[in-house]
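Example 3.
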Amino acid sequence: MEWADFTAGRTGDLHGRAIREMTNTTNTRRDTLFDVEEMELNFGPQHPSTHGVLRLKLKVDGERIVDCYPIIGYLHRGTEKLFELHPFFQNVPHTDRLDYVAAATNNLAYVGAVEKLIGLVVPPRARYIRTILCELQRISSHLLWLATHAIDIGAMTPFFYCFREREIILDLFEEYCGARLTLNCMRPGGQPFDLPVGWGERCAEFLDDFPSKIDEYEGLLTNNRIWKKRTVGVGVLPADLAQEYGVTGPMLRASGVQWDIRKAMPYEAYGDVEFDIPVTYNGDTYDRYLVRMEEMRQSVRIVEQCLDKLPDGLIMAKSPRVLKAPKQSDAYFSIEGPKGEIGFYLVGDGTPNPHRCRVRAPSFMNLQVVPILAKDQLLADMVAVLGTTDIVLGEVDR
Amino acid sequence: MSSRGAHPRHPAPYRYTIVERLYLPLLSGLWVTLRHFVRNFFGRGKTYTINYPEERRLYSPRYRGHHILTTRPDGSLRCVACFLCAAACPAECIHIEAGEHPDLNIEKYPLLYNIDMLRCVFCGYCVDACPEEAIIMSNNHDMAYFNRGQSVVTKDELQKPYAYDESRLGYRPHYPEEQAQHAALRHGLVDLVEEARRQGADSASRTAS
Ligand code: SF4
Ligand code: SF4
């Protein structure tokens, strides 16, 4: 049996269909030099600028991308099933590994869902600490995005500068919770540790310094004509399409929709602090860059205010020894992560384990518009389009 | 709030200003890199990298690294084989087999205590769960194994490495008062050997006085 026949039988199978299409096109392909012919190209899964193991099947007409077909699932680890097998508190380390460059926001979305399900009230000090951690995480995630996005497009220098500052944030995380990437820094009901001695001062020191560092990145890129040539007008996402596809986060705000869960449904300490939501209207790669840069500035503002207002008191709510969800209960809690709305939907059945968990991963939703952004772009702009969506494959495949 | 339909599907092509056409804004970027180059060249800038294996920074006292099984003053393991750490472990990487301890107050001790370091996710829940402070963590993160078998470390290996080196302890339930001093040290790079020697001298003088 031919391989194509074998895969043709499995309709609906993503890989089968992709392979079948590919074999068909290669069979019918004529061997001519100047014939106008569309060609299939595989982009990834081992390509460094796919930021993980994403495979894009591109149909190109010369240098133009005619069609783009993302194939995902290379990093599928069955996280949602794993959640069902462990008690509520044991699942926090699993959430670290969804969006592995922004563990704190994942932690918060998960523990928030558990608290909503069980009905725990978090003490104010813990809420402030969580807000600080999440905003630092947003900065570090955006720094990593800027570093890799710029290096994809060809600007090498921002990479070094961004990692320099990201290092300081990771050091702060290490000091707070003992890990740099897989933080595991929240528990249902509060925070496991208080801030270490002198942490606030070191954080404030970093925050004083950081805006000048953002100016440095902007000096390298914002008005740079080469950067503009690579990003302005590339990958335009209209606002109506963005909303139809459920795109959230900086991608949505760059298309001119002012939607941010931190403002719309304030959680933790966001109701008590002042900050602005940057919005731009062109929806291209350059605008998404501007939005993220401004978001970093706003995050600095939020952390500074939180450090000023940090209340004293308990960091852990009084909670039962074994967390049990009420029978037939469910809760959905979502927060504004660095990449968009990250939410957890939990169903409880009276046992210490969740009955079902569903992760609303922003990267997955944002990846859906990549074929639209990539259409009619040059092949070289594919990395710009992919970089600007800021996907993390751990979260897409879960 | 929504601007549905208001968005231009094909925005007008961007018009570069005359300054941009002359690539003049590039100069601001060049200025940034030049400033860094000059500063670093004359040793004025702060160096952010370290020569890792030879030089190590001081890790956080909460660092979650390789585990340590602590011992009683007589050298036996504090672990009473209660299996709480194994139950709390989300990676299910702790394997314990209990044996009967001759001392009735202690009841049990672990015949076997294995942690699979390749499965461990270094979450620290085992440390949180232990009622006896029998398992703590060190700040050792450079573990390497030649095969998967080696990655399953036994109770002897867990007991050995850093048990008496304070500067290499990591995540544990209680921190001594030196935490503030530790935090102050965290800013600079500290040569661990030097630091250990200094701390040794400190404790010697403390006992002498
Ligand atoms: S650190 Fe976490 S994963 Fe590792 S042994 Fe302890 S409980 Fe298990
Ligand atoms: S290490 Fe602690 S929690 Fe684990 S079995 Fe021993 S005493 Fe119990």
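Chain B has seven helices and five strands. The radius of gyration of chain B is 27 Å.
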